[in-house]
Model the fold of this input.
Amino acid sequence: MELRPLGSTGLAVSVLGLGTVKLGRDQGVKYPGGARIPSDDEAKTLISTAADLGITLIDTAPAYGTSESRLGSLLAGQRDRWAIVTKVGEEFENGLSRFDFRAPAVRASVERSLTRLRTDRVECVLIHSDGLVENAPELEGTIDELDRLKSRGLIRSFGASTKTVPGGLRALDRCDVVMVTLNPGAKDDLAVIAEAKKRNKGVLIKKALASGHAAVGGMSAGATAQGADPVAETIRFAIGTPGVSSVIVGTSSHMHLAANCRAAAGE
Ligand code: NAP
Done:
């Protein structure tokens, strides 16, 4: 598995990362057919497959249900081989999202993430934007707090998972990393990725498979090459985009994970 620098953080991460929404959450998701939370045995196989295939980057969030706490036990004893990305600002409870980007909430969230993940630091924390905060004045206070947590050594780097191009561009001013959407049917954030490349910032890609719709032909017509494997083509498109550090593909299937790794390797 190819490793790429995560901007100027000093971290090198696998070009394919593992997204873990489905590890802990089955409500309020947009996957075709919904989501089924994997059993403990399935989750263990998923993580060991990821490790065997050279994946080093795992993306989670407090808003992904039990994802963080499950990873805490799944990664026990192998913490040093993983770069963990988690988030702040969104909580998902009883089927509803709630947002709080104020400094005390950010601090408490990171401390709780460390407890759940059974670790003393994470490699990156992203602001889990609701699409509004990234363009609002209050973002500065959120970033100030993340900067303090970085100085305290609790987080190695920070950034924002954004929903708008202006929000992504703004995040580049003060953040180490952005997480943006990129797939053949959603290319607006190419402008953010190009600017991030110029400034040597880390770029993580979310929804590279359009939340699974790429696999069931839901992508816009003509989005993928005729007759090609749409999932492999789509993963290669994201990985081949200049400036991309890692493509975080969500899966609860070790078979899909292996196929995605083959696609990432160009096989
Ligand atoms: P995605 O990676 O575009 O697609 C995931 C879906 O694709 C899953 O339903 C998965 O189903 C399916 N899939 C994966 N590999 C496949 C294969 N080889 N063949 C067929 N189907 C396949 O969407 P995402 O999970 O929404 O986004 C990726 C990650 O980005 C998330 O897990 C999360 O870590 C992060 N994310 C962040 C935000 C945010 O910060 N706001 C928002 C969205 C996502 P199976 O389980 O059956 O493989």
Summary: The mean pLDDT is 94.
